[in-house]
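User: Hey, quick favor. My workstation is busy. Could you predict this chain's structure for me?
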Amino acid sequence: MDAAYEAKLRADYDGQSREDVLRDYREMLRIRRFEEAAARAYTRGKISGFLHLYIGQEAIAVATKQAMEPGDRVVSTYRTHGFAVALGSDTKACAAELFGKAAGLVGGVGGSMHFFDKERGLWGGYAIVGNHIPVAAGHAFASQYTGDGRVTLCFMGDGAVGIGPVHEGMTMAGIMKLPIVFVVENNQYSMGTPLKRTLPVEDITSRAAGYGFASDRFHVTSVQETRRRLGEAIERARKDGKPTLIELITYRFRGHSMSDPAKYRQKEEVDRWRLNDPLERALMALKTIYQVPEQELDAIDEAIVAEMDAAYEFADKAPAPAPEARFDNVMAEGPYYGDSATTRPAGVE
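Assistant: No problem, here it is.
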């Protein structure tokens, strides 16, 4: 570690206690190890469909959990495993959902892209790019209408900002002054297309003024700064009803999905971003600033690996959902669609 890097590290962690940094490191590492285990399971054919990993962006999910109050909502994209783990979803249920098993978060019918855990504030991962922004605005409108004091945090990738429903949802939020925070996780690529080919203006938050939003934009290098700045936006939404557009400049160290080998990136680029990986920086801080023994750090990692191994072993052995489960939650029962066929109108089966 060169002197300049160490000086910056010490400045960034000034005022943080050993226990706080260990907590943040542990929670980021839990997400990293869950995702690495998911990648291995995918290559063994245990997971079907798409799998979008969150490796490199873990600090955002951990900071979000710490900044939220009970009852606040997260509405996310298909890259949502990190939020589920950070918000406290059972890792066994998360792994089982990836495997399509009945014990999964939503009974195995959602899979990787549709994690949902209402009790912990996760109101869905959405597979259609940009189309969840009006959904999130609807959540915020419900809070405004009922006066429940809750804030909705809506996450999207940089590739979503050109989608029509994003503009529609943000316009509504600005007009109605909804208690919502829109967060762009700018991980440098829209699928495999670099930012410079998808955005005419690099600063996504320059759009905020057109919606009447506050804005913030910064590189994500630690949980603590991300928590503080997200917290300011959440408080603004809760107390003043003013939405915020935040651009979090981050990086994903895997391809868009498991089917993407990411050959469009140079090794030098990846190595450069690794220097600012919040997980690696937290580890370096624990070693150099807080003098945490190597044995203690190894024990933390071993315990997390054991947790994830147990979660994926549980998922592998868990039963598949019954065939009729595919009809669950599709249609509300009522006078015509109850259990009795005699209550249905003629011609309806």
